[in-house]
Amino acid sequence: NRARFDDALARGERLVNESRSPFARFVYVTSQATLATLEGRYADTERLAGEALGLARRTRDRVNITNVGVILMPMLREQGRAAEMEAPTRRAVESFPLLASWRSGLAHVLVELAQYDEAATHLAELARDDFAAVRDDVLRTYTLAVLGEVAAAVGDRNAGARIHELLEPRSGFASILGNTAFHGAVDRYLGLIDVALDRPHEAVAHHEAALALHERMRARPWVARSHYDLARALLARATAGDRERALARLNEALDVANGLGMVRLQQEVLTTKLELQGVSSGASIMASIDIVAAGVSIERPDLSRHAAADGMVTVLFSDIEGYTGLNERLGDERSQDLLRTHDTLVRDAVTARGGTVVKSAGDGYMIVFPDAGEALSCAIAIQRVHAVHDFGLDAGQIRVRIGLHAGAVIREGDDFFGRTVILASRVAAQANGGEVLVSDALRTQARGEFGPAREVELKGMSGSHRVHPARW
Q: pLDDT tens digit string along 137-164?
């Protein structure tokens, strides 16, 4: 109940100040951190968690020191930082072996890190004797809820079905750890289990209930996650109109995730969007070309104003080969300097040839041209300027991958984006560093010198396709 929570915090501040108790101050600061996390104010969460840790150390309260990690977990998960919780959670399991909530939390962290086998082992241990280790206390709802998510993730249908039965009476309530952490509506976890048990109709109902609770709580990160969960349930149900509803939910989820820095949810939404476009979930979601293409699919820009009089447009995708490794080697600050230089070189070439940057993300670009020849000329210019530019000894030579395709402008309402854009992104994904790769259609429209054609399979496209490397 958000209104009661806000009222309790307002009254609590006065009482804490009067008490001058470090323990009371710890409880109050913890509650403030919970509120910050609930609203997606993650910078405030970290600041308040640091203050809580100082208070816990001052009182030498071992339990409270450990519980600071509980404050941080919902935030760290959404920021893609769950790995930071693995070691301290393992220590908590060892220190408090009779508290099933710590072991369930560890299993949850392991699922986030794709360590499914070990997560399944912890689930099986807690499931013994009909979950006898999960005591009927204030931690029971949280413990069962996260175990339900673990069961769904590792594919343990038996455990999932039993957890569903045990959790069902808590439908309509939230999974919380005291005043320390809000883990979303119980209905969310029931819905996750329903999907795993091939009960999509029930899953949709539970996720709709979870979304309503999260909205009442003004819990923005959980609202975004509910949009994503509901989209997955709708896609699993696959009745008339579900696909369109799911796409709208995915767009809602990504909009909030982008604003709050929810890296984990961003990746999950983009993965789902790409799967719907025929890109397997095993593909690297962090490939810049894929991210740019998925972003365009969500924003659905009108490309008709960039097309030639006959409605044809040429689309260019590019990114830097091996940028992730380069970033890890150089560090964020130096990598950002490099990206600014790369951006200047790309945009100068684009402007000089009448192109338009439709979307960029990190090192990745989608650029459109009304003229195929100018597009090819721009691609070659980008390669040449990068080949001679001095990026510094630490960076070495920067090799760019570029792919182009020409076709008709197609808008498909709320459904992805046109085949022209999809095919261009797939061609670019086939390019090597330092290569300009063009489709058969582009080859027939633009003058230039090309190397031997090669037959390739493009993700999500049936059959083989001929592509041509441009000589530059």
A: 999 999 999 999 999 999 999 999 999 9
